[in-house]
Each structure stands twice: as C-alpha cells, then as structure tokens.
Amino acid sequence: MTLTIASATVGLLGGCVDVHSSSIRGTGYVRIGDVIKHHPMYAQLSQLDDGIAAIDLAAAAPRVPLSAAQIARETGQLNRELRDAQLRANKILAQKQQDYSTRERQAISAALAAAGVNGNGQLDAAQMSNTSAQQAQQAAAAANQDFMAYQQSVVAQDNAASTAIARQLQTQEAEKMRAKAEQLQQNETDLSLRLTQDDATQRLAIKTRLSNLALDDATRKQLVSQLAALNSKETAAIDAQRRADAATLSAYRAQLDSQTGAAVRAQVGAIAGQTQAKITERRNEVGAQLRTLGPPALPTTLPPGVRDKIAAIHRQFTGQFQAEAQKTIGDYTATKNDLDRQFAALHGADVGATGAAAKELAALQKRRDALYKEIVDQIMREATRIAKDRGFSIVFENIAQAEGGYDLTNDLIKDVESQHE
Amino acid sequence: MSIRSVPFLTIAALLLAALVAPQAIAADLTDVGFVDQAELASIPVFTNANRALAAYKSQLDGQYNAALRHAGSDADRQRISLQFQQQFSDKQREIVGPLFQRAQLAIAQVSAAHNLSVVVDKRIVIYGGQDITKDVETLFLGPQSIQPPAASPPPSEIGYVDQTVLDNLPKVKTANDEMNQFATTQRTLFAPRVAGAKTQADRQQIYQEFNKTVNDKQDQLLKPLVDETKHATSDVAAKKKLLLVLDRADVIYGGTDITADVQNELSK
Asked: Which backbone phi and psi does B105 adopt, to 5 degrees?
C-alpha cells in the first residue's frame, strides 16, 4: 500500500526515480560487465574471447620432445628467419634515412631561398647541411650495421651453446635410461633364474614320476597339471615383474624428461639472459653514440633567424624519422621476440603460442580490443547522457558494494538494447 | 471547496510533504574528486624514472640469470630470486619513491583545498565528480616543497575494502589455491585435445567444455565465499551508513576503510 502510494507520488513528481533522495543523493553506478553482456555485439566479442582462450589452451599442450638433430635443424631455420628480419629492418631503415635526408635538404634549400639567402650562401648552407647529414647518416648506418652484426654473432654463438648443452643433457638422459633399462632387464633375468631354481626340485620330482611308464592316467594327468601350474606360476611372476618394470621405466623416463627439461630450460634461460644483457649493453652504447650526432653545422654568416629556422627543420625531420624508425624497430623486435620464444620452446620451455598460432592470437586480440573499446565507448556515452538527463552528480562504474545510490545498469541495458532493435 | 475535499487535500499535502521533505534536505554527494593517474604517469619526471628503472631491471636480469646458473638446488634458486626481488624493490623505492610521495602530498593538499572526502581514479568515474588532475599536476611540478594538509580528510560516505587482504584470509586463500590447482590440472588434460582438434568448430567445442568444467568448479568453490564477502561488506556498510563501497585499488586518497571490519565479519 505504502509502496503504491509512493510509486504513484514519484510518478506524479517526474515519471522517474528522484536522484536527489536521501538514499541516492545524486550518486549512481553501473555494472559495466552486465551491460556488455546485453550489447548486440556481445556475441561477436564472446566468440573472439573464446577463440583467444582456445589458442592459449592449445599452446599449453606438452610438446613432443625433439632429438638434438631436430633441435639443431630448427634452430638453424630460426636463425635464418632472424637474419632475414634484420636485413629487412635494415633495408627499410636505410631507405627511410635516405628519404628524410633528401626531404630535409629540400626543405632547407626552400627556407634559405625564402629568406633571400642565395648564391654562395645558400650553396654553402645546403652543402654543409648535406655533408653533415651525410656524415650523420653514414655514422648511424655504420653504428646500426655494427650493432646488427654484433647481435647476430652473439645470438648465433649463444644458440650454438644452448644447442650443445641441450644435446649433452639429452645424451646423458639417454644413457641413464639405457642403464636403467639394462638394470631392470637384469632383474627380470635374475627373477626368472631364481624361480626356476626354487622350483627345480619339485619340477625334477614331477618329471621323474612322469617318466615312469607304469603311471595310471589319473596320476599322470594330475602330475601334468602340477607341472603346468608351476610353469604358469613362474610365467605370472615374471609377467608381473615385467609390468612393474615397465611402469618403473615409464615413471623414470617421465622423471628424467622433467629433470632434463628443467636443466635445459635453466641453462638456456641463463644463456638467453646473458645474450639479452650483452645486446642491451651494446644497444645502449650505440644509442649513446648516435645521440651525440648533432644538428648540421651551418655557416656562421647566416642570419640568426635563418639558422633557427634550419635548426627547427632539422628537429622536425629528425623527429619524424625517429618515429618511423621506432615503428620499424618495433616490428623487428616483435618478430625477434616471437623467434626467441620459438627457440625457447624448442628447448622445452612453456612459452605459450608461437609462430602461426602467435600471429593468429595477435590478430584476434587486436580485433577483440577494438570491438571491446567500441562497445564500452558506446555504453559510456549512453551512461553519460542518462546521468546528465536525470541530474546525477556522480556516476561510478564497477563498485564493490552499494548500500545506497542508484543502479543504472538496467536502464542502460534497456537503452542499449532499444537502440539496436 | 467542499467539506469532503479538505481532508483529502490535507492528506495529499502531508503525504507529499513527507515524501518531499527528506529529499529536500538531502544534499547530493559533491565531495568526491578524481585524478587521472595515467596522465600523471606521463609527466616527464615519471617517465624518466620508469625508464631508469627499466634499464636497471634489464641489467639486473642479466646478473640474475648468471647467478641462477650457479644455483645447486631449488632452495638456492629461491634464495637468489628473493635476493634479486629485494634489490629491485630497493631500487624502485629509491627512484620512484620520492616522486610517488610528492604526488601523494600534492593530491592531499589539493583535496584539502577542495574539501574532498575521497579521491578516486578517473577510470571508475563515468560522469560527474571533481577532476583535480590539473591542480595536482601544477602543484607537483612547482618548485616549492609540499606539506601535508593540516587536517585529515573529512569522514566519507564512500567506503573501500582491500580485496588483496581479504584474498589472504585462510579460507579464501585455501579455496583460491584449490581452484588454481584444479584449473592447472584441467588445462593439462584439455590442452592436448584442443591442440589436436581437426576443425575450428571442434576446437571451440572442446574449449567450451573446458570452460564449463572450470566455471562449475568455480561456482562450487568460490561463489559461496564471494556471496559471504558481499553480505559481510553490505552489513558493515549499512552499520557505518556508507552509500557505496569501492575497491581499495581505485581509491587514491581519503574514503572510509572498512577492510578490517569486513575481515572480522568473515572470521566469525
């Protein structure tokens, strides 16, 4: 009754909840996760999420252990791919350097012409700028090439070291397995011998009695049966021992695989860490060298305004080149990281998806992120509009618990759904 | 006006007054501020500090891997790991600590100046609230030293719980550990099946089967605890007359901490 009157009165007051009441006080909240589930594009999002999770799950499957020869072969292939990626990145960087250098020279010439610096002055400035840019370009190219060569040699050396360690540890494992198998085989032979010795007296007695031609049929049958029982007992005991040995051998193999895997991972991880540290150190050195390459030296006869203008042009082109170079280096780094992970996977490390699966995963993740952003942005826009229309002071998302305030989730769900009907 | 209509109008007026009066005196919550932490983190002094920290980490990683090579046992590896973690934490405190402290003081000062009872991260505010990011940034970048405000923030009707503390309660931790163990085992069982699936549809179907298995276990193991925590939080919030309760991770300054009370409720 009270509720009916209250509802009627609230309806009378404005057709919706009073957001300034003592229990709401202009405060709202939205459970975004719930709204997303009602968004018309949620099915697509969910499908992408499932696809991503399925690739992740598949990547967790144990890999079939590879032989040392297979590891060496695949390592060689990975190294070739890494070299190709380095060459590609170098080529793109050199081309970009050339393009930006040409454009910078043209821009400087135009600036000098606009400033009325003609003839020898322009020639001098352009030539000095050109010479300086060429020197910087040559220095950068040389430093870059040196760095790439260094990186290639360090990676190749460390890959070789890792492969050698893996091979050595796998050989040790194979030797241990062979020794264990031989020991178990010896045990089976010993057991067989012991059983034969244990039953020898009884067996001889039976056989002696069986050799008596005057034996009646019933007794003969009984003795044959006793002999068969003895054989069967021995066979059963040996079979049981064999089954137990097979289980022991299998458990031992699993234990050795695990130990070898851990040892290989530890060693390869340590080597990879050292490789990375060496490369980072050299990269920092090269970076420091390149940073010392200053702007082009210009003739002192140029007016200060023109000098400033040329310096600004240099900064602008350097900045643009660095941004583009960064992207190329980023692409190369992504390829290198994936190859590193494939290399680690070769040595038994659990590194998640690699190669084609990693590419598929990245593509799905990109689509998923874009779709998620689109959905959330739309929900946020609608939430903001509703909050503004209804006069809320503040609206939160994803709170832990509400004792007051107004839950806008259902209003938002209806709103989002109605827009796509 | 007829005699009969007088009482009706009186009742209607009283009813209206009764409903309107509390609403008229209840003020909207206006003492909530927010800071865009992502914007603060992009201030050059922070990005430089993070870059320095990343360089230190890269150097430390090399030393760590080298040290691991000489570890003879799991205990050695654990000791080395702890030692390097400690080294990194120390460096982090050294490089980022003073900056973080200055940012905290700037937030406290600006909050006091705006008379805010709580400041949250921008990412949880959809609409409204007072954006104090620019003021904090200006104060932070200023040359002067920043003193803590004279008074602590006023009592807030916005509460918060530290979920990491609740996650460490023995019964919650045990359930979480069991759940993780179960999920790991299921991954081991399902992974080869997904990897060996012939078609995309098969892969999806196996993944959904895996998902259902894990979700069912989650409902069985964790849902009762989640519900219990919600009830406990709700009880405490009601007793303390809080309007909303947030996660500690989203609260930057002020607010009413009810973690200990919720912890006590859950331990009963």
From this structure: -65, -40
